[in-house]
Write a structure and sequence with these properties.
Elements (H helix, E strand, L loop, with lengths): L12 H15 L8 E2 L2 E5 L6 H7 L7 E2 L1 H13 L3 E9 L2 E8 L2 E8 L6 H10 L10 H17 L6 E9 L3 E9 L5 E8 L6 H5 L11 H4 L6 H16 L7 E9 L5 E9 L5 E9 L5 H5 L12 H17 L6 E9 L4 E9 L5 E8 L6 H5 L12 H13 L3 E7 L9 E10 L3 E10 L3 E10 L8 E8 L3 E10 L8 E11 L9 E15 L4 E16 L5 H10 L14 E7 L2 E8 L10 E11 L6 E15 L2 E14 L41 E12 L8 E12 L11 E12 L2 E10 L11 E5 L4
Parallel strand pairs: 2-5, 6-8, 9-11, 12-14, 15-17
Antiparallel strand pairs: 1-3, 4-5, 7-8, 10-11, 13-14, 16-17, 18-19, 19-20, 20-21, 21-22, 22-23, 23-24, 24-25, 24-26, 26-27, 27-28, 28-29, 29-30, 30-31, 31-32, 32-33, 33-34
Helix pairs in contact: 1-3
């Protein structure tokens, strides 16, 4: 605060008294002033701030007495606004004069030399800490902003960066803030040294670390850039590795980080002490277990004589705690206390079980479902309000909501009720995602002219949980219109109903492989009845009418079909063999069983899926049955790597002496069966080289699925090995006929639906097989 005292004459005594009071406020001294009655208040020096704003901070009004205490309060209040660099108060003939010097405002913030960060993101980040256009300029805040910028660059491994801050005054008491950044080069980890390890080699321990020296993929993973958080995680990984192999007393003594003078290379040294390897001499349970000692003891994953394993011990106490939670003891404490015998290198554990109070659920609260109706989520809950807490039912409830696939994220918490010691609330928070798939395509060719294709599938339509689908194809060769509707809760107890109707017409381009026409009209209704948390049975009835028209030059398989079922000649020596039309009607009955324990329908990482389906058409023009069995298995095997196995066996056969219908054949090749071969190209072929499909199909797939670091969890790359084949009705299945393919691919649950791309190589293709390396699919599963 400025204080100008030019003359100390009697007429200016009061004015200088107030200035001295201001000086006293700043210096800690005390100067008394002569109180006076305020006749008027005048504010001078304002450029942007409204005078009314200043008046609102003054503790005095016209007609009131102004004294030393009010002077101190006024100065404090005006300085506290942050608007002013200097505040002076004077008295001139009973008029209170407030002299102000405003702080400059920031006209703009600019960055030069920034490549690692987007400029817009930097502007927004600095605005959050007070540096932004139209904000009051404060040098201390600018200094903090500069330090924050440096911290962000250091976190990216840019230790050689330099930041120069320039403050440029411009007209109307404004300044421009410019941060000139010289990012320099990213510092890379040149070497990681581990000292003190005897039981395990350096290379074995380095494999456990997320930090590494530069390699093939470190340009993407950034694993060769030092991060304090990553190093902390790596130290925990080392501790876990040792403690899971018996080294109970293993410790990391220190970590040293050094950087070369040119700030390009970083050296990390980890000092550790392994300690001795311990075996378990005894494990016993104590505490209040309500007579369930044997049941709880069976949950222990360690026993006498085992090598100590921290992860298995932790999992054991967790399992006991969760089992107590199934009986209503939500806050059960289970602790394992060790007793070491260092001479024998043995450790004994006493596991204390403290169940605490039995609690019940007061209320189930939902949040985040802005579109989905509450009832759609609540009907998946197996835990009920005002009933005893059951940890298993709460987990099942969360898993069932997750499996709806309506949400990107599902979080469940069970906080205690603050006003009660024996109640909890269940809070479920979801993040909704688009559940509709819309596909539209258009094309033009000289043969097919204009082609339009489109499909709409809306899961959770209007937030109801129902799925509605419409599929339209207007190409000259294949025309389709199909509608479907699925109500997962057709009844309140969870019986589902699916209804679909369709009209499909197939007619090849004249002159390509022979003219024919197939028109299929049909519909079906199916019901699903759950009889356990993971098991559902299905049954349904359909009706399907197929009309086939053949002409001279039609493919043999269609001529034979018309000869068997329609008006065409049955004499294969006749020039009109099979020429004509055939109309067939069938009424297939379906029955199926499904067991699904996967953690997610679209991106499973653990669990099993099985489905057995039987379709029987015993009434109608042609009679047949077809059976399908599919099994899938998902298991994490290393960090975030998931092993996915898929197997399928399908079999069809004609009834009543009739052949198996051509239109019910199974096909193999492409994504969903054997990658590396053209879709639906395997098996017996007609004279034109087109695959006929078969009545029997055998498939097997192995995938290793790995998510992309830092990306959406549904974005994963995978390696695969596929095998399979289709066989004609009555043909013997021979392993020598199987085709195999292998390769890599990417899958992603995109905003327009699940996408899968693969690049595969046919491993044992025969000369008549059609190979295809790159393949694309919009869909799910293998």
């Amino acid at each position: 605060m400025k204080l100008h005292i030019e003359h100390f004459t009697l007429p200016n005594f009061r004015r200088h008294t107030l200035a001295l009071a201001a000086l006293a406020f700043c210096s800690g001294s005390a100067f008394a002033i002569q109180p006076f009655t305020v006749k008027d208040i005048r504010v001078e020096g304002l450029q942007r701030t409204e005078a009314g704003t200043v008046f609102s901070y003054l503790p005095v009004r016209v007609g009131e007495i102004f004294d030393d205490a009010k002077s101190t309060t006024a100065i404090k209040s005006l300085y506290a606004t942050g608007f002013f660099k200097d505040v002076q108060i004077e008295e001139q003939g009973g008029v209170l004069v407030v002299l102000l010097e405003e702080r400059p405002t920031i006209a703009g913030v600019e960055f030069t030399g920034t490549k690692e960060f987007e400029k817009d993101a930097l502007v927004k980040a600095l605005k959050d800490i007070g540096i932004g256009e139209s904000r009051i300029f404060d040098k201390a805040t600018v200094d903090r902003a500069e330090q924050e910028l440096k911290r962000q660059y250091l976190s990216k491994g840019l230790y050689g960066m330099k930041i120069t801050t320039t403050i440029t005054p411009i007209e109307r008491n404004r300044v421009r803030v410019t941060f000139a950044v010289d990012e320099g080069e990213i510092a890379r980890i040149a070497q990681i040294n581990i000292i003190g390890n005897k039981a395990f080699s350096d290379s074995e321990l380095r494999e456990l670390l997320s930090l590494t020296t530069p390699g093939w993929f470190t340009w993407y993973t950034k694993a060769d850039q030092y991060s304090k958080q990553k190093l902390s995680g790596d130290i925990e990984s080392l501790k876990s590795f040792y403690q899971n192999r018996g080294y109970l007393e293993m410790q990391v003594l220190s970590t040293q980080i050094s950087i070369t003078p040119d700030k390009k290379d970083i050296y990390i040294t980890i000092n550790l002490v392994e300690g001795d390897k311990y075996n378990i001499s005894d494990i016993k349970l104590e505490g209040d277990m309500f007579g369930r000692e044997q049941e709880l003891a069976a949950l222990m994953l360690l026993k006498k004589g085992d090598v100590y394993n921290a992860a298995r011990l932790t999992e054991s106490t967790k399992r006991i705690s969760e089992r107590m939670g199934n009986f209503g003891y939500a806050f059960a404490n289970v602790n394992a206390n060790p007793i070491l015998d260092k001479e024998k290198k043995e450790v004994a554990f006493t596991v204390f079980v403290d169940p605490g109070k039995r609690v019940y659920v007061r209320r189930i609260n939902l949040a985040g479902n802005t579109r989905t109706r509450d009832e759609v989520i609540r009907r998946e809950f197996r835990q009920f309000e005002s009933s005893w807490y059951d940890g298993e039912k709460i987990k099942a409830s969360r898993d069932r909501v997750e499996r709806l696939s309506y949400f990107n994220d599902v979080k469940l918490e069970t906080p205690e009720v603050s006003t009660s010691t024996d109640q909890v609330d269940v809070n479920l928070t979801v993040t909704e995602k688009p559940t509709g798939n819309l596909m539209f395509g258009a094309g033009y060719s000289s043969a097919e002219k204009l082609t339009l294709t489109g499909s709409i599938q809306q899961a959770n339509a209007f937030g109801s949980g129902d799925t509605i689908g419409l599929d339209v194809n207007t190409s000259r060769q294949n025309r389709t219109i199909a509608v479907s509707h699925t109500d997962p809760y057709f009844t309140d107890d969870g019986i589902s109903r699916s209804v679909d109707a369709y009209l499909r017409t197939t007619r090849p381009i004249i002159g390509s492989i022979g003219d024919y026409k197939v028109q299929t009209t049909g519909g079906s209704v199916r019901f699903g009845v759950p009889f356990s948390e993971v098991d559902t049975i299905f049954f349904g009835l359909g009706v399907e009418r197929t009309k086939v028209e053949t002409y001279n030059g039609s493919p043999y398989r269609y001529l034979k079909y018309v000869a068997d079922y329609g008006t065409g000649s049955k004499d294969s020596t006749s020039v009109n063999y099979g020429v004509g039309q055939a109309s067939t009607t069938s009424f297939p009955l379906t029955a199926a069983w499904q067991r699904d324990s996967r953690d997610s329908v679209l991106t499973p990482t653990i669990g099993r899926y099985q489905r057995a389906n039987l379709e029987l058409a015993a009434v109608g023009s042609f009679k047949y049955y077809r059976a399908i069995y599919n099994a899938q298995y998902f298991q994490p095997i290393y960090r975030s790597v998931t092993l996915a196995l898929n197997g399928e066996f399908d079999y069809g056969h004609g009834l009543g002496g009739r052949p198996y219908p051509l239109f019910k054949n199974f096909y193999a090749g492409g994504i969903g069966s054997v990658r590396g071969y053209e879709p639906s190209s395997l098996g017996t072929k007609d004279p034109n080289g087109d695959a006929l499909g078969g009545a029997t199909r055998l498939l097997g797939n192995i995938e290793l699925q790995i998510p992309f670091p830092g990306a959406d969890k549904s974005l994963r790359w995978f390696t695969f090995i596929d095998g399979g084949q289709v066989f004609d009705e009555g043909q013997k299945i021979r392993t020598s006929d199987l085709r195999f393919g292998a390769g890599i691919g990417i899958s992603w649950i995109s905003p327009v639906g699940p996408l899968k791309l693969s690049f595969g190589k046919a491993l044992n293709a025969k000369p008549d097989d059609k190979k295809q390396s790159f393949q694309f699919q919009m869909g799910t599963g293998f």
